[in-house]
Design goal:
Layout (H helix, E strand, L loop, with lengths): L1 H18 L12 E5 L33 H9 L2 E10 L5 E3 L20 H4 L29 H7 L5 E5 L4 H13 L7 E6 L1 H10 L5 E2 L1 H14 L13 E5 L11 H9 L3 E5 L14 H4 L9 E4 L2 H21 L1
Parallel strand pairs: 1-2, 1-9, 2-4, 4-5, 5-6, 7-8, 8-9
Antiparallel strand pairs: 2-3
Helix pairs in contact: 5-6
């Protein structure tokens, strides 16, 4: 019995020593904001399904920005976002339309499938047409966003100092190949692409064709996190977690070996960046750190990217918290 106790104690001590953050030098960098869809009109996420028209359930507007527009991306960067997430569709005239929805019927005055509609037609649409916060009594953005759906080329040109996480909305491999061709033709835009994600086929095709680019899809994320949970306690980082973007739901983060500082150090040594999401509840990986309450889920020394739907709120709150932490450290 005594031998068993000693063995258990030794194993527990070894696990602690291998995975405690107390023995790791805290990162010198600070947390960075990743603005999902730029600054945009937010909505209640309870009960949202794939076919829910979220433009019809927005909260009362507090600003005039619409998602995936150049103005919303600029506003996100002005608020402190280091990376802006955007959504793309490859149209029949070989342009990348920057727009979230698979179809046009919810947000715009158009009809049909986004990727099946020429960019010349998409440019005529009012992308604020369908937004309402009161069940259709009023439409506060109708008539104010005619022709504001940008192409990816226009985004890169208008915001040359921006960095973007590109979401492939389809699973067409040709989207990845076309993006790779675009970046090859304009090497100056390569630095603008922080990473890619979304549909597995275009994501993996882009990563194959663009050396050094990071990205992820659902399968690669589950492979990375699942294998790390299985044997990350050994300090071995699975190959699936190397040279990639590691997205971590905040409510699962405490179950990762060495979270936060030891985990972050391992991912950095593996050439990867960590993106902290909001709580994962079984839907897609897009819930964000969107309130002061959510901000408590971000570790004090976290130096990765904080995914948020409210960059205009979270960026200043995060700044104040970091300033308070630095002030306390200076006093000590």
């Amino acid at each position: 019995m005594k031998t068993l106790i000693v063995v258990v104690f030794a194993v527990a001590a070894a696990l602690w020593l291998l995975n405690t953050s107390l023995l790791v030098t805290p990162p010198s960098d600070t947390a960075k904001i990743l603005a999902h869809r730029g600054i945009h009109q937010v909505f209640q996420q309870e009960g949202v399904e794939n076919d829910t028209c979220t433009a019809q359930r927005i909260e009362p507007p507090r600003h005039a920005y619409l998602e995936n527009t150049i103005a919303s991306m600029q506003a996100a960067m002005d608020s402190g976002a280091e990376v802006v997430e955007l959504d793309i569709h490859l149209t029949p005239d070989r342009q990348f339309a920057v727009f979230h929805d698979w179809t046009l019927d919810c947000r715009t005055d158009g009809k049909g499938v986004t990727e099946q509609t020429p960019m010349t037609t998409l440019k005529t649409l009012d992308i604020g047409y369908g937004y309402t916060a009161d069940g259709g009594k009023t439409f506060p953005f109708r008539g104010r966003a005619q022709g504001q759906m940008p192409t990816l080329t226009e985004v890169f040109t208008a915001l040359p100092h921006g960095r973007f996480l590109i979401n492939f909305k389809s699973d067409r491999r040709e989207e990845g190949a076309t993006l790779a061709v675009l970046l090859r033709a304009h090497p100056e835009w390569r630095k603008s692409v922080f990473g890619v994600y979304g549909g597995s086929a275009p994501t993996q095709e882009t990563l194959r064709l663009v050396p050094g680019l990071r990205g992820y899809d659902r399968q690669s994320t589950l492979a990375c996190l699942g294998r790390y949970v299985a044997y990350g306690w050994t300090s071995i980082v699975p190959e699936a977690c190397h040279n990639t973007l590691v997205v971590v739901p905040a409510n699962y983060a405490p179950f990762l070996w060495g979270w936060p500082d030891r985990f972050a150090a391992r991912m950095k040594d593996a050439g990867s960046e960590v993106i902290l999401l909001g709580r994962y509840g079984g839907g897609d990986f897009t819930s964000g750190i969107d309130s002061a309450d959510d901000l408590t889920l971000v570790p004090k020394n976290f130096a990765g990217y904080v995914w948020t739907n409210r960059a205009e709120t979270i960026s200043p709150l995060l700044g104040k918290r970091m300033a308070a932490t630095n002030s306390q450290a200076n006093r000590e």
